Amino acid sequence: MKLIGSTTSPYVRRLRMWMSEIEHGFEQVDIFNSVDRARLVASNPTLKVPMLEDDARIIFDSGAIYRYLTKKLNKTELSWEQINLLTLIDSANDSLVQMFLLSRSDIDTNADKLYFRLQRERFDVIFTELDKAAEKGAFVPWNYATISLFCLLDWASFRDRYDYSGLSNLVAFHQSASDSKEAQATDPR
Questions:
Q1: Which residues neighbour 183 within 8 Å (Cβ) at sequence distance 6 or greater?
Q2: How many helical (H) and strand (E) elements, i.e. helices and strands, does the chain have?
Q3: Residue 68 carries which DSSP code?
Q4: How far is 35 from 45, CA to CA, in rounded Å?
Q5: Residues of the chain with pLDDT under 70
Q6: Which of 22, 79, 138, 189 could share a disulfide with 133, CB 3.0–4.6 Å?
């Protein structure tokens, strides 16, 4: 079994952290490198990372990989409450990545345009909701949703994409989770 992805992707990182006790290989690719991009084109029609090779089977997308491995390895599934939190995390992460790619394409994402306003509103609402959930202890068990929140927060800080410093529960969670051996081992810095 081999996980394929970049070391800076929050989606790849969440799997690397979650899979830390599962025997697997890791192949680093750079989706902007022509050789690595050709590998993706040949194997993964989404042209995104992560992807998992397990014998002849290729699984696309972090969520699908998580579900596949949870079933295959008979791991505990997330509760519906945790799945809802993961939906918030994924929504914010998807939008942040899109805004990041637009910025890397020299598009001013601070412009007063509908798309950008909607994304900024989404960030504010979602991060506030995640802060409330953290305050209630929703991210105390170390599981896939908790790891995904850490990866979102760390990536947002690493890429300077969203300032959540005013949300004390998220700040405390991020600081606490940063000390884990999985976070240290997968830090893209």
A1: 17, 150, 154, 177
A2: 8, 4
A3: H
A4: 16
A5: none
A6: 138
